[in-house]
Amino acid sequence: MRAALSGLTTRGRCFIAAGITSTLSALGLGERDLLRVGVLLIALPLVAAAVVARTRYLLECERRLLPARVEAGRPSQVQLRITNVSRIPTGVLLVEDTLPYVLGGRPRFVLDRVEPRGTREVSYAVRSDLRGRYAVGPLAVRIADPFGLVELTRAFAAVDHLTVTPVITALPHVRLGGDWTGGGDSRPRSVAAAGEDDVAPREYRVGDDLRRVHWRSTARYGELMVRREEQPWQSRGTLLLDTRMRAHRGEGAGSSFEWAVSAAASLGVHLCRSGFNLTYLSDSQEPISGYGGVSDVGGGSFEGLLLDGLATVRTSGRNDLDAAIAHLRRSVGNGGLVVAVLGALSAADAQALGRIRQGGATAVAVILDTAAWSGVAPRAQTAAHSEDDAAAHLLQRAGWRVLRAGPRAPLASVWPEAAVPASATVAT
Asked: Where does CATH 3.40.50 sit in the chain?
């Protein structure tokens, strides 16, 4: 009853205030009719509160996000299915879903009456221009009396999450050189294929065909093992994202960091769909590796993990790339393709990255012209450009292919520069 009284609406409180005033006036003036009016005005909200407090509806709620993972700037549909599982019909219900401000205002729906075992379905659209992982819910249901004197709010506990990924740009297919995604032992093998000798079972990796599980070795080692001799050669790639705060400029969705995150997402999706067994690295997150499958956005289970990671990545406070380079050195120890999306680089950073490339491995660096995002004076921009040019020269001397990108340069127009130079093409 105390909760019901706390749910009095403005109308209900006005009724009680008018009833008290009328009662006091009637007592002072000795007017019985006015006293009856005052008692009635006080009793109506109290009776309504008692009725609402004793209401015991049993409701079920099912929420679906279509899709649950969506690119920034694109809408997602939220579908709500409310079922009255009790044996009595409901009264007027005001349904309100809880949303963060990034996804828009709180949607509200009025349900006049839900019969026993009846269902009602409502839907609304959400949209965010900012990537992230956002909670949708819990759903709140307001129960009101027919006169609108009392409202009680009861909430479900279930919360769903909408993942808003970075904007993904379709990239043209370019010949990077040395990459091979074919299968079979009789096919030629390049340096960047980075496969092992397929002569013995190895541990199961995400994307391996379960029909190739070697059950005898699985029983022996206590974990899933697959037959190497039946595995196709796979191109291997490593994607590095520079998340250092000091290496980026600008704020919000128009910053160089957001451009870099979107570029990493586009490159990761492109390489996944090109058949690469990919490893994603940054200096602020744990490495992610895998390939294959089907996801809501794009074509791979690893692709979904990659986009989930990039949806929530934030800048780090590191001053160098030592942690990322240590992971990178372990990942490219057997060769393969390396693609790095980098902010402002110092000479020491460029030298450390240059030592990563070994043998005939293909290494591509996308260096952002962060000075163009900063809005600083021309003299400061000239100094920043000189430092970037020196770092790019050091990487090129180490065998990296360097791509320069600015705020007005779409990645799709820059990526073809990563192709094998015509002079390096060998006729077969």
From this structure: 191-195+233-424
The model's confidence at residue 373, banded by pLDDT at 50, 70 and 90, is confident
What is the 3-state secondary structure of the chain?
A: CHHHHHCECHHHHHHHHHHHHHHHHHHHHCCHHHHHHHHHHHHHHHHHHHHHHCCCCCEEEEEEEECCEEECCCEEEEEEEEEECCCCCCCCEEEEECCCHHHCCCCEEEECCCCCCCEEEEEEEEECCCCEEEEECCEEEEEECCCCCEEEEEECCCCEEEEEECCCCCCCCCCCCCCCCCCCCCCCCCHHHCCCCCCCCEECCCCCCHHHECHHHHHHHCCCEECHHHCCCCCEEEEEECCEHHHCCCCHHHCHHHHHHHHHHHHHHHHHHCCCEEEEEECCCCCEEECCCCCCCCCCHHHHHHHHHHHHCCCECCCCCHHHHHHHHHHCCCCCEEEEEECCCCHHHHHHHHCCCCCCCEEEEEEECCHHHHCCCHHHHHHHHHHHHHHHHHHHHCCCEEEEECCCCCHHHHHHHHCCCHHHCCCC
Top-confidence residue, 62 or 191: 62
Listed ranges 32-46, 120-134, 150-164, 170-184; the one with the highest mean pLDDT: 120-134
CATH code linked to domain 59-165: 2.60.40.10
pTM of the model: 0.73
Q: Name the CATH topology of 191-195+233-424.
A: Rossmann fold (3.40.50)
